[in-house]
TrEMBL record:
<keyword id="KW-0408">Iron</keyword>
<dbReference type="InterPro" id="IPR008775">
    <property type="entry name" value="Phytyl_CoA_dOase-like"/>
</dbReference>
<keyword id="KW-0479">Metal-binding</keyword>
<protein>
    <recommendedName>
        <fullName>Phytanoyl-CoA dioxygenase</fullName>
    </recommendedName>
</protein>
<comment type="similarity">
    <text>Belongs to the PhyH family.</text>
</comment>
<dbReference type="Pfam" id="PF05721">
    <property type="entry name" value="PhyH"/>
</dbReference>
<dbReference type="GO" id="GO:0046872">
    <property type="term" value="F:metal ion binding"/>
</dbReference>
């Protein structure tokens, strides 16, 4: 396993809840993925698009209940930046500068992202971590963090959105460009996967009218201070492994540089995947095996 994690890396992931690995993929790989993402943005049909904004963090009500979002689990769909549209849904910037993210089945439907997500280096890392028996990729996204208008992603734990019993979600987050404090790099609260329980989950409402959060605990959990988060600038070619329970966030991009990343999340295939989780494959199709 050429890219197997060392014991020190595994210990670091266990301690912090995330692991930054630089020079994991080449600048050419990053350029290929950026070109594939750009082609998708250039070619989707804007006229038939419902102009769904992807609300980044605090104002999640904006997109809940949105059919376009809820049916995106096994499709490639396009979500706009808050500030890219006027109240009538007209674009205020060119389409290449308007998309917040694409999701959620790039790893299935786009050949470039499919190859990258299941290549041997990725498999080596996941296999050597030893946390999964049957890891399944359940969603993938490109997040663009557009220059000047790229929205912040508020503090969250991925298992809130990708809930399994027992918890098993893990993100692999790939820097397709240099990510810096100026253009909206990631911040983590080290060790929070062990100290801050996942206290809610994001579900479809039983009446089909949209989504909501349901509490998993009896008492409110105090949000840890944001000053305690550690800023993690990541050069192009970096992968970050993100434990599903670790608190993380990213800042706004007010700079003139974009910050494109690709990410996908795995869950344990043997864990229970609740039927009311927001993300579902149509017809209950199984999620993509990562190792076979
Ligand atoms: O890339 C970002 O800005 C946020 C990504 C993130 O939080 C996630 O994938 O869980």
């Amino acid at each position: 396993m050429a890219h197997a994690l060392s014991q020190a890396q595994k210990d670091s992931f266990d301690r912090d809840g995330y692991l930054v690995i630089r020079d994991f993929f080449s600048a050419e790989d990053a350029a290929r993925l950026r070109a594939a993402a750009a082609a998708l943005v250039d070619n989707f049909d804007l006229d038939s698009h419902p102009k769904t904004k992807f609300s980044t963090g605090e104002e999640q009500d904006e997109h809940v209940g949105d059919k376009y979002f809820l049916e995106s689990g096994d499709k490639i769909r396009f979500f706009f930046e808050e500030k890219s549209l006027d109240a009538k849904g007209n674009l205020l910037v060119p389409r290449t500068r308007a998309i917040n993210k694409i999701g959620h089945a790039l790893h299935v439907l786009d050949p470039v992202f499919k190859e990258f997500s299941t290549r041997s280096s990725v498999r080596d890392v996941v296999r050597s971590l030893g946390a999964f028996e049957d890891p399944r990729i359940l969603q993938s996204m490109v997040i663009f963090k557009q220059p000047e208008i790229g929205g912040r992603v508020g503090p969250h734990q991925d298992s809130t959105f990708l809930y399994t019993k027992p918890l098993s979600a893990m993100g692999l987050w790939f820097a397709l460009e240099d990510c810096t404090p100026e253009n909206g790099c990631m911040y983590f609260l080290p060790g929070s996967h062990k100290t801050v329980p996942v206290s809610r989950r994001f579900v479809r409402k039983p009446d089909g009218s949209g989504t909501t959060f349901v509490s998993l605990v009896d008492e409110d959990i105090q949000d840890p201070p944001e000053e305690d988060y550690v800023c993690e600038p990541t050069p192009v070619g970096t992968v970050v492994l993100i434990h599903g329970s670790v608190l993380h966030k990213s800042s706004q991009n007010l700079s003139s540089k974009s910050r494109w990343i690709y990410t996908f999340h795995c869950i344990e295939g043997r864990a229970e995947y609740p039927k009311d989780n927001w993300l579902q494959n149509a017809d209950g199709k199984p999620f993509t095996p990562l190792l076979t």
